[in-house]
Write a structure and sequence with these properties.
heterodimer; A: about 475 residues; alpha/beta; Aspartate Aminotransferase, domain 2; Aspartate Aminotransferase, domain 1; 2 domains; seven-stranded mixed sheet; B: about 120 residues; alpha+beta; OB fold (Dihydrolipoamide Acetyltransferase, E2P); six-stranded antiparallel sheet; three-stranded antiparallel sheet; about 20% helix
Chain lengths: ~475, ~120
Amino acid sequence: MAEKLIFEISREGKRSFTMPCWEDCSKIDLDEKHLRKEKIGLAEVSEPEIVRHYVNMSTLNHHVDKGFYPLGSCTMKYNPKINEYMAALDGFTQIHPYQPEETIQGVLKIYHDLADMLCKISGFSKVSLQPVAGAHGEWTGLKVIRAYHESKGNPRKKIIIPDTAHGTNPASIVMAGYDVVELKSNSKGLVDIDDLEAKFDEDTAAFMITNPNTIGLFEQNVKKIAEIVHSKGGLLYMDGANFNALLGIVRPADLGFDVMHYNLHKTFSTPHGGGGPGAGPIGVVEELEKFLPVPDVAEKDGKFHLDYDKPESIGKVHSFYGNFLVIVRAYVYMKILGSDGLHNVSENAIINANYVKKMLEDTFDLPYKQNCMHEVVFSGENLSKFGIKTLDIAKRLLDFGIHAPTIYFPLLVHEAMMIEPTETESKDTLDRFISVMKQIAEEAKNDPDILKNAPTTTPVRRLDEVLAVKNLNVRYLQK
Amino acid sequence: MEFPKEFLFTEDHEYAKIDGDIAVIGVSEYAQEQLGDITYVELPQTGTKFSKGDSLGVIEAVKAASDIYSPVSGEIIEVNSDLEGNPELINSDCYGKGWIVKLRLSNKEELSGLMNSEDYKSHVE
């Protein structure tokens, strides 16, 4: 390993910081039952050691502040630093969730105004900011759908998704108590309308799709799809993972969607979670408003308050009101760009993806030829005759300081490579990426071992993924 | 790549090897190659009944998880418990030690809807 674990540099007795006793510490009188019986088990290191350890670790990682990150479906856009500055202001960080409402009017206004902006850009009538991740938003949206059907007397049994769906969709469906029915895509990579019509019956609660879909293609028949779904009393859910392609161009509610979740990290430049705090708000049409989680931030006589008075609400889905500082970052991003700026975000995301598509379409297989939206899916199958897999291409990219695209997803494209440049990358960055990809394709023909042995310049080489899945062990300290 | 003659195949790359009214079910060599290194197989309970096209289990690989769709209707009479500890048997010997379930056919007429090895070979290519 390039860097030791913090526990490996630990030496007994080392300290980073010691608190001086301002009185005689021994006088502190604590009941025996409150005293720790075992060692706390934390690493013991000096301050310079701990600082160097984490600084060194951060330089070993790839991140969007360090290099290009075209990870399809994930929208790894650059996060403007002003978001961080604003979210770090004392007025936002030095507050407590139980503070009286009259002392946090500014905070409540941000909740209120961000929800309002998210409504405007999607066409929905109400947004809840409470869910704390995209998948959490999906689950919350599906619980709202269930509450709606229950109010009609029958929760229904199943939800349909296309075969291009994100893996979180079937998981959220099952967690919301429904069975998953999969719909195969047609030869153009879009929803097969006839098959949907045949499968969507009165036991089906909803149809859940991503638009643009995960092949980066715009679903062109959403109005027809909405007609089919609504004629059977069902609801239409939009996974907003790819909303970055639609800002200021299409409002999902106008197309006939009833519920949608927003991934603030994919569309509104909040940091990607990696298990950390996130936000996955949901928007709904008027008929579903009453089922949204409580509390909601409401305005009365120019004052904001938390409104719990919603008897048909599905209840709380997180403590307090979601992750506030993530909300602040999205608010800052939207306020700075304004409606014209947000429109340009999507336009540039689409132009960048189509530029990459055009420049690489003779180098790799392109299963779906039409213009794409914000991401493009290639196949590495044309290199298989040299014994090269998409995995090898992805690993070789790391040697050039470029994060690999998403590979082997969507599942219906063999040897898939899903490239999403995002709007934040310049033509120079894209041109370098394109020339690297062409060089890798040449290497595959002339010297495939370079690819098979890649990466060689990263802190660790190829990892044993099978062993990691079968025998995952992330504990250093063994009991 | 192997396409053994005595096996029948589905478009989704499952196989059925028929012996009287018993079908041995697994996935084809092409399927295991596409899946890559297999790390876990979720098997059904013996005695469970499936209709043709139902998901009778799940194969998890490093790349992705995929449903195993039953090529025929019937009742599970045996599952390959060796796969619990050694799911990679599907990668190394999909037509032999890597079989997944044995199922008693409830409708033999369904067999005519499956592909023989030659048709399957051209389907894959």
